[in-house]
Amino acid sequence: ATPTALMVGTGRSAKLGILIKNGEVLEAANTVKTIVFDKTGTITVGKPKVTDIIGDEQSVLQTAASLEAASEHPLAAAILAEAKAAQVTAAPVTNFQAVEGQGVTATVNGQAAFIGNTKMVHGTLSPDLQSQMNALQKEAKTVVVVGVKGAALGLIAIQDTPKASSAPAIVALKKRGYHTVMLTGDNQRVAEAIASQVGIDDVIADVLPGDKAAVVAKLQKEAPVAFVGDGINDAPALTTADVGIAMGSGTDIAIESGGIVLIKNDLMDVVTALTLARKTFNRIR
Ligand code: ADP
Ligand code: MG
Questions:
Q1: Is this complex scored with an ipTM above 0.85?
Q2: Are 241 and 264 in a shared domain?
Q3: Helical residues (DSSP H) of the chain, grouped into ranges
Q4: Which of these, 95, 102, 144, 232, has the minimum number of CB atoms within 10 Å of its CB?
């Protein structure tokens, strides 16, 4: 690879809003066979909205909003927006604790309350709540359980829609022979529903934030991997992958960890970047 050819490649792409850190990144991009995508904010728009509340709406929403008031999770923003719209005010909380990949616990109105996935529930959900949860998840909705003292008060379903560019980008990548994978902390059913909407080949769900990089490393044993993500939790996976591709709308740490940054957050630019790598190296080889 000659430096001049690489400069031409990266200079042209920058005009398209595709920032490529250096020539090695482009060279690595040319070897990639598997493309792993984060779900929230990468495949989806990342602006989730509450769609369903199961249980006593007022108390479920009030407990949820109280718990989420201090949370930085994207799901928290959806719940707080819904509480505001319903004019439900959050109660003060003590002992706030964010549990990685699971949810939040705190003391609300003098009781130990929680919000999050089913790992937060002591024992199991009632058969009725479990079947309602399954049905909502099949509709590609993320369902969180709200409860006190380990028992569920109700459920909140939250929907985040795929970006308009997601399905066309996946089609184009598959046509070019890439293996596409979704990697998420969300539930398997939700992940599969979104993956089928956009045409992603494989789903790896229920992955704790701290385990994403290890999953990427495991996939790298088969073939070189590009990881596409946007979150704080995605930084280790972005640096572990042969090529890290960060969304321009992502967190600072994700952007710093990416070898490629997509300023427009458009997944079609993953195709453009990889095609550019192929063209650059085929021309100068
Ligand atoms: P993702 O990979 O989609 O960003 P996370 O690893 O952040 O997912 O979270 C995994 C799951 O844990 C979420 O789908 C949700 O069920 C639960 N969870 C995590 N944080 C929260 C929170 N603040 N409020 C409610 N649920 C949460
Ligand atoms: Mg994300």
A1: yes
A2: yes
A3: 3-15, 23-29, 57-68, 74-85, 127-138, 166-175, 188-198, 212-220, 235-240, 252-257, 268-284
A4: 95
